[in-house]
Amino acid sequence: MALFPFNRPIKALLWAWLLLVPGLPVAAPQQLDRIVAIVNDDVVTATELVSRMRFVERQLESSGMASPPRDVIINQVMERLVLDSLQMQMGRRAGVRISEEEVTRAIEAIAGQNGLDIEGFQALLARDGMTYREFREQIRQEMIIARVQQNRVNDRIYISPQELENFLASPVGRAATEDEFRVGHILLAVASDATAEAMAEAEARAQALVASLRDGEDFSQAAVANSAGQRALEGGDLGWRKPGQLPSLFAEDVLKADLGEVLNPIRSASGFHIVKILDKRGASQQRVQQTQARHILIRPTEIRSDDEAEMIIRDLHERLLAGEDFAQVARDFSDDPGSALSGGDLGWSMPGQMVPAFEAVMDASEIGALSEPFRSQFGWHILEVLERREQDMSEEVKRRQAMRILRDRRFDEELEAWLTEIREEAYVELKI
After folding, report:
1. Average pLDDT, the chain
2. Model pTM greater than 0.90?
3. Domain ends where: 265, 281, 297?
4. How many CB atoms lie within 10 A of CB 65?
5. What does the alpha-carbon distance between residue 17 and residue 47 come to, in Å, rounded to a whole number?
6. Domain of 402?
7. E-assigned strands of 190-234?
8. Which of 164, 176, 186, 316 could form a disulfide with 227 if both were Cys (CB 3.0 to 4.6 A apart)?
9. Are residues 14 and 150 in the same domain?
10. Separation CA 265–CA 373 (nearest Å)
11. 193-216 pLDDT, tens per residue?
12. Considering only CA atoms, which of 47, 63, 50 is closest in space to residue 15?
């Protein structure tokens, strides 16, 4: 099952995790340790079954939903517990571990989405009859199962290049990857029966206001003072909108405009509209600073200490300062096999692509300047920045967005198929 969606209310979160089950009588004490199912190398106990049923019973009571027949519910709960057991066994075999810190962060996220701190969240759990410790363990199990599902199901998903292209060309794909625009709007209203002279005066006023805004006048203040639009008191801010959500009167002009641009006045039956592009976000805004650098790496090894590696890199640094060819020194001495044959050239890299220690020196280096020797997790380096450029990554970002959407769609389908397969292949003996 998928990890809790953190943007839902707490009861909805818990309902997403638990099956909807009617009231179940409290089991007698001697039943609590009974084995109710054998699942491969694990068992499901009556304690787990009753605990799950009790909690869902409280949720049903609070929602007022009608209860299905008891035998149907018990079968559903048992099937869920069996699938949970199978996935937890896979997680243990794969060495999946969830740290206490990860569990705490997940719970803080759930609490935060519900407007609560941890203490308030614990109080809410107590009112629902669950201890904080129990909830932590349920979250831990959910996180383990989610990782198992990601690892197993993602390997089953293949999106062909043609499928990706078809999606990008479809109306749904275009809408999903479109930019969003935050637009400011001022309406200078003109009466429907205005004379030609009044219309000309209104147009002149609009032109003057556009000129003032282009000279730096604050748009929001101008909107409050002049606009007759519905969003005047909000500074004329129409909020974030996809192109299809923009007023048709100026949608095409917005798409062609630059960030911060104030459009020429647009006339309509209601008056003159003044529009400013306050902000943009989306794939077309993805321009990144790329750096081309080359380096020489000397690694410490079992027979070469860190101090010895440092001595070698400093000697090479002196030789480079004395005029030796960087590319040849890299080919002869660098311990980075991926770049040594190309004279140490690492190609073009984007922010976040290199380890922090390397990226910090690279970002601080001037083009053509030789860095001082420095240490990273891989060993000792010398680097030289060859060139920098700003690269438009909009198409790449758009394709990644589309691929993520397609994989998310396929994931649910493949998850159901995978769960069916592991259930059919498992040894399961029900004791009730």
Report:
1. 84
2. no
3. 281
4. 12
5. 18
6. 158-177+393-432
7. none
8. 186
9. yes
10. 59
11. 888 899 999 999 999 999 999 999
12. 63
The C-alpha R_g of the chain, in whole angstroms, comes to: 32
In CATH, what number is assigned to the domain containing residue 29? 1.10.4030.10
Please, which contacts does 27-33 make with residues 24 or more away whose CB atoms are closer than 8 Å?
none
Which residues neighbour 208 within 8 Å (Cβ) at sequence distance 6 or greater?
none
Per-residue model confidence (pLDDT) at position 351: 83
C-alpha angle with apex 321: 317 to 327, nearest 5 degrees? 70
CA dihedral for 258, 259, 264, 266, sign (positive or negative): positive
Mean pLDDT of 9-32: 39
Average of per-residue pLDDT across 222-234: 91
Same domain, 17 and 148: yes
Cβ contact 180:243 at 8 Å: no
pLDDT at 298: 96
**What CATH number corresponds to the domain at position 313?**
3.10.50.40
The reply to whether 247 and 320 lie within a common domain is: no
Q: How many domains does the chain have?
A: 4
Note the pLDDT of residue 315.
96
